[in-house]
Amino acid sequence: MSTVRVTVDADTCVGIGACDEQDPDAVVLADGAATVARPGMFLDPDRAEALCRSCPAGAITVDTAT
Amino acid sequence: MSSTQVSPADVDVASPDAYADGHPLDRFDALRAVSPVHWHAAWTPFAQPFWAVLRHRDVVTVSRDPATYSSEQGHVAMWDVPEYALDARRSMIDTDPPRHTRLRRLVASVFKAGRVRDYEPRVRRLVANLLDDTLRAGEVDAVAAVAKPLPITVILEILGVPQEDAPYLLELTDQLVEATSGDPVDPAAYGNTTDLRLLPFNSPAAWALQEYGSRLGRLRRAHPADDLVSSLVHAEIDGDRLTEQEFRNFFQLLVFAGNETTRSTISQGLLALGEHPDQMRRLGGGDPALFATATEEILRWASAVICFRRTATRDTILGDREVAAGDRVVLYYNAANHDPEVFDRPRVFDVGRTPNDHLAFGGGGVHHCLGAFLARLEIRVLLEELVRRGVRLAPQGPPVRVRSNFVAGIESLPVRAVSL
């Protein structure tokens, strides 16, 4: 199965924390902002889509370069 | 009113009178059907015309594009205020990124889901006490007995405000809503001498709330405690602290938003469950998953915040309308929450509704409601504790609604606890 990377837009993330609830292994929430847990980490597409959908701010997107 | 009979120009969704009997769903439906992005006339000689946005997808589009639809330019309410006043009264909701991001991240961790979960035992004890008192009292006002004390107690504990001051802060936030009724206010109330244009809601109660916050802030600067006010007065972002005015506006916003909107949602929810006893019995039927879906349905049904405004920063297209730079764009959340494009049988109150992509916390984007997890917790625990006691609150008379075109509130709702 192909995998994808996700990106958290630092300007759009306001630390709501829904992503942290959805997939705590994929993102880290600190100082009111989320980041991808490990740079370059790959996720299966369903997991990535669920993570993107969880963010009400729309800060998480699939990295189209992958 | 049907969509075939109405002229869009005649439909008013802006004045407080339009909300006298609750959300004007007939008007929303009529307008959405023929003019979903609608150029709405000014509702008073002091207001200005604006685009009324009624469709779910358009509310989402606007909410998720702060570069095109600004909260910082113009004003987030329907009427304009001078630029100098905007700066004086600016809080997190009146800002765009990056200023908004700086403010929001100061408080984000306190309201994230994991942290809110820690509040559940205290919320449950509070709800249990309120309901037990209600059951003992016979006929009560559900707003005074449950909907008012629950959210104010929780937000004051988080902020570190002494609980004995709750009645005073409730009075002040009630006055802020009152200022959206269109009725005149006494500018000198509470000893205010500040120009009302410099105050949120143009209300002297905002000044009083800010003064209260300033006093508490000074105390917490000298004697920090484990609370949000202490965090705010000591917080540093890139080496800067909040200015005194930023703190005052922040405190006022947190007290207001942390209680008024949840109070209104709980009041509307209790009314809806009272008017739909079959749905309350369904909740008591033993399926625990229904508490979460019922919470979302109450949020959709209540749509406690009627609208927020954005201001277009450039010429753009919304729906099939040409929106010009500087135009006022007002998002009607309950119109979106009854959009038949998104919700099957939107006028049906269904505690099992799934999916339920409501916009009660806004249309997404950076202004998604800070207190969303906390509001959900308070509503869900209230439903669980009602069912645990095997009761529902049956209305004993009509609700008295708050006169406002901003908050869909209920002043009083006579109820009596009866068996499920």
What's this model, at a glance?
The complex is a heterodimer of chains A (66) and B (420). With 66 residues, chain A is α+β, with helices and mostly antiparallel strands.
Beta strand count of chain B: 12
Strand order of the largest sheet of chain A: 1-4
Number of helical stretches of at least 4 residues of chain A: 2
Which sequence of strands runs across the widest sheet of chain B?
Answer: 1-2-8-5-3
How confident is the prediction overall: mean pLDDT of chain B?
A: 94
Count of beta strands of chain A: 4
The protein's oligomeric status is heterodimer
Which whole number gives the mean pLDDT of chain A? 91
Largest β sheet strand count, sense and barrel closure of chain A: 2 strands, antiparallel
Helix content of chain A: 10-25%
Strand content of chain A: 15-25%
Q: Please mark out the parts of chain A with pLDDT under 50 across 5 or more consecutive residues, or reply none.
A: none
* Largest interface summary: A-B, 17 and 24 residues
Helix/strand-derived category of chain A reads: alpha+beta
Structural shape of chain B: globular
Helix percent of chain B reads: 40-55%
Spans of chain B of 5+ residues with little confidence (pLDDT < 50)?
none
Distance between the termini of chain A: 14 Å
Structure overview:
The complex is a heterodimer of chains A (66) and B (420). Chain A has 66 residues and is of the alpha+beta class. Chain A contains 2 helices and 4 strands; from the N terminus they run βαββαβ. The model of chain A has no long low-confidence stretch (mean pLDDT 91). The relative contact order of chain B is 0.18. In chain B, the strands form 4 sheets. A 5-stranded mixed beta sheet of chain B has the order 1-2-8-5-3. Chain B has a 3-stranded antiparallel beta sheet with strand order 4-12-9. Chain B has a two-stranded antiparallel sheet with strand order 6-7. By secondary structure, chain B is α+β, with helices and mostly antiparallel strands. In chain B, α6 runs antiparallel to α8, α9 runs antiparallel to α10 (204-222) and α10 (204-222) crosses α11. The A-B interface holds A 11-18, 20-21, 29, 31-33, 56-58 and B 64, 97-98, 100-101, 104-109, 111-115, 361-362, 364-366, 368, 372-373.
